[in-house]
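Hey team,

Filing this mostly as a record. A colleague (T.K.) asked me to run one chain through the structure pipeline before their review meeting, and I want the input and output archived in the tracker in case anyone asks later how it was produced. No errors, nothing strange. Just documentation.

Input sequence:
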Amino acid sequence: MSIPKKFLKIWNGECSYQVREYFNSLAVAAKRVVPSTAAEFVVDEKSIRYQHSTIKEVVNNDDTLPTPGDKNPGKRKGEKKAEHKDNKTVKKWFC
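Output structure:
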């Protein structure tokens, strides 16, 4: 029995868009920094530019990041790898 494979293709790019949201007062509109879920996004289809795409195999339950396991990477003690040298520069003035 073989598990059917699925592949996900993701296109990355840029486009021009406009976001529209209606408010009941000027004060509420002025305080809004980012659009809410009630906003309408309008994409200018002529401005869509594809930069690159990627394809990856999708595995069932592949929607989570791998866990580090039993080890907690934050518990390790850091090691000093290189000794810092004192690199003082002496400026000499010539007249």
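Quick notes for T.K.: The longest strand covers residues 49-58. The longest helix spans residues 26-31.
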